Amino acid sequence: MQPFDLSTLSAMCGGDPKFLHDFIQLFTETTPPSIVQLKTLRQQGNWREVADILHKIKPTVELFGMMHIHTEIKLAEQAGKTGQDLDKMDSWLDHILMHLEIAIEALNKEIPKYA
User: Fold this and answer.
1) CA-to-CA distance for 83 and 87, rounded, in angstroms?
2) CB–CB of 71/45 below 8 Å?
3) Is 95's pLDDT higher than 90?
4) How far apart are the first and last CA of the chain?
5) How many CB atoms lie within 10 A of CB 19?
6) pLDDT level of residue 115 (50, 70, 90 thresholds)
7) Which of 33, 34, 53, 93 is the least buried, fewest Cβ under 10 Å from its Cβ?
8) Angle, alpha carbons 38-39-44 (nearest 5°)
9) Are 77 and 64 in contact, with CB atoms under 8 Å apart?
10) DSSP state, 115?
11) Contacts of 57 (CB under 8 A, 6+ apart)
């Protein structure tokens, strides 16, 4: 099973392979720095900024059909904003970060299919 679903993205772009290629490439290039930031901010306990980054990546996660982490992103974002449920933040972030990294690796293998 793929860690993503391109059907929404494909429908949005009318199946245009160039658009798919460019969008996948954009995701695989811009998400790793966000992952690094999330790890650093997590170590610093800067939950508000963690929430801000999660808020920024949430629409892309939806677009790439990564619904298995979407709920955790929303929960972690809310916790970061409110300061509540921070005891669950490490578990959420572990799961989110792992699945983002898996998706990036898999999507990098998809890029040539749309070139």
Assistant:
1) 10
2) no
3) yes
4) 23
5) 15
6) confident
7) 33
8) 95
9) no
10) -
11) 31, 34, 73, 100
pLDDT confidence tier of residue 1, bands split at 50, 70 and 90: confident
Contact status, residue 86 vs residue 79, Cβ threshold 8 Å: yes
Residue 34 and residue 30: Cα distance in Å, rounded?
7
DSSP H stretches of helix in 45-88: 47-63, 67-82
> What is the C-alpha separation between 82 and 99, in angstroms, rounded?
24
Taking residue 83's Cβ as centre, other Cβ atoms within 10 Å add up to 10
Amino acid at 92: W
Tell me, what's the pLDDT at 2?
87
Domains in the chain, CATH or no CATH each: 7-108 (1.20.120)
